[in-house]
Design a protein that fits this description.
Strand content: 15-25%
Radius of gyration: 13 Å
Strand order of the largest sheet: 3-2-1-4-5
Number of domains: 1
Number of helices: 3
CATH topology: Nucleotidyltransferase, domain 5
Structural class: alpha/beta
Helix content: 10-25%
CATH architecture: 2-Layer Sandwich
Distance between the termini: 31 Å
CATH superfamily: Dinitrogenase iron-molybdenum cofactor biosynthesis domain
Length: about 120
């Protein structure tokens, strides 16, 4: 199974980013071999539609779950349509977010956050 965690850097000990569409990196964690792969968020530089671009990029990665702080309505539509579950983190590291997910201790994100939230950081 592959998990996606929004990340501030491309390092395993990175802080998770509370933003989805405007996070700099995505940490893709493979639960089968316990490895991380980091990819740059292609949507971060978009003047508009960052969440849409990020959501499509993650759907293309065939992940089964996204762990992030917030997700806007347009991104959530794409993620939901791809059958990807979303989970909420606060100020955890990406390693802690993975552990919390595996221990079934993360709440789901059932409702999209406000649009353009990531531009406020």
């Amino acid at each position: 199974m592959k998990l996606c965690i929004s990340s501030i850097t491309n390092k395993e000990n990175s802080q998770a980013d509370s933003r989805f569409g405007r996070c700099p990196y995505f940490a893709i964690y493979n639960t089968e071999n316990n490895t991380f792969e980091f990819i740059e968020n292609s949507g971060i530089t978009s003047p508009q539609g960052a969440g849409i671009a990020a959501a499509q990029q993650i759907a293309d990665q065939k992940v089964e779950a996204v762990i992030t702080g917030n997700m806007g309505p347009n991104a959530m539509k794409i993620i939901d349509a791809a059958g990807i579950k979303t989970y909420k983190i606060n100020n955890e590291t990406i390693k802690d977010a993975v552990k919390l997910y595996i221990d079934n201790k993360l709440p789901t994100i059932d409702k999209a956050g406000p649009s353009h939230l990531g531009m406020q950081k």
